[in-house]
Amino acid sequence: MKSPKTLILTSLADEPRGNHSDGNSSDPATHRAERPGIAVTLECFIPGEIKDVFDFVAAQDVLPKILTGYGLVPAVASTSDVSGPWDRPGSTRTVHLHDSSSVREGLTHYDRPAFFAYHVSDPSFSLKHLMSHACGQWWFVAVEGGTQAKWAYTFHARNGLAAIPLRLFVGTQWKGYMKVCLNNIVDHFDAA
Q1: What is the DSSP letter of 70?
Q2: CA 94 – CA 84 distance, rounded (Å)
Q3: Per-residue pLDDT tens for 94-129?
Q4: DSSP for the chain?
C-alpha cells in the first residue's frame, strides 16, 4: 500500500471524559455518563486547492471512491435514503458496505471549505456489539501547493468491557482503513 509522504498519526488514544466532539453538552451528569471515546487522527498533504479538496471529500457520492476497504473493514458499496442535501447539517443517509452490512450517518457540521463533521450509528455488523456511536471530523487548511487535511474519528464503546476489543479494532483495522482512504484522496488529486 502506497502511503502519502506527509501522513502523520497524531493520536490513537482514549478521549478524555466530557470531551465531546460536538461541544454541545455542558450538563455534568451527561459527562459522567459518557464513556471516553477511542480516537484516531491522521493528517496528510493533498495536492489540490482547498475548495476542490473539501468539495471532493464532503461530496454525497464520494464514499465508494475513497472508502475501498482494509483488512476486516469492507469497502463502501453505496449510500441510500438521503434525507436532504448533503451540505446541510441534520441530513442523514444509510451507508451500505460490500458485505451487505450498513450503518447510519448524519451530518452535524458543514463549514465549507474548512470543516465538516458527522455522526455514525446503528451498524448492522459486529461493531454493533462494541460501539454505541462514532463521530468523524475533517479539517482543511490551505498551504503552499495544496491543502493540509486532518481527519479525526472517535468511537464510543457500549461499555467498559466492549472498549477493550474496540480499542484493538481501531488500532489495527480502522487506522489502516483511514490510511487507505487518505491515499485514495491523494491519488485522485495526483491524477488530476
Answers
A1: B
A2: 12
A3: 999 999 999 999 999 999 999 999 999 999 999 999
A4: ----TT-EEEEEEEPPTT--TT-----HHHHHHSPPEEEEEEEEEESS-HHHHHHHHT-TT-HHHH---BTTBPPEEEEE---S-TTSTT-EEEEEETTS-EEEEEEEEEETTTEEEEEEE--SSGGGGTEEEEEEEEEEEEETTEEEEEEEEEEEESSHHHHHHHHHHIIIIIHHHHHHHHHHHHHHHHH-
Helix, coil or strand: residue 40: strand
Residue 164 grid cell: 477493550
Q: What is the predicted pLDDT for the residue at 18?
A: 42
**How many residues make up the chain in this entry?**
192
pTM, entire model: 0.85
59 CB-side CA count, 13 A: 15
pLDDT of the residue at 19 = 41
| pLDDT tens track for 52-93 | 999 999 999 999 999 999 999 999 999 999 999 999 999 999
Nearest Cα to Cα of residue 75 among 175, 158, 177, 185: 177
Q: How many CB atoms lie within 10 A of CB 117?
A: 19
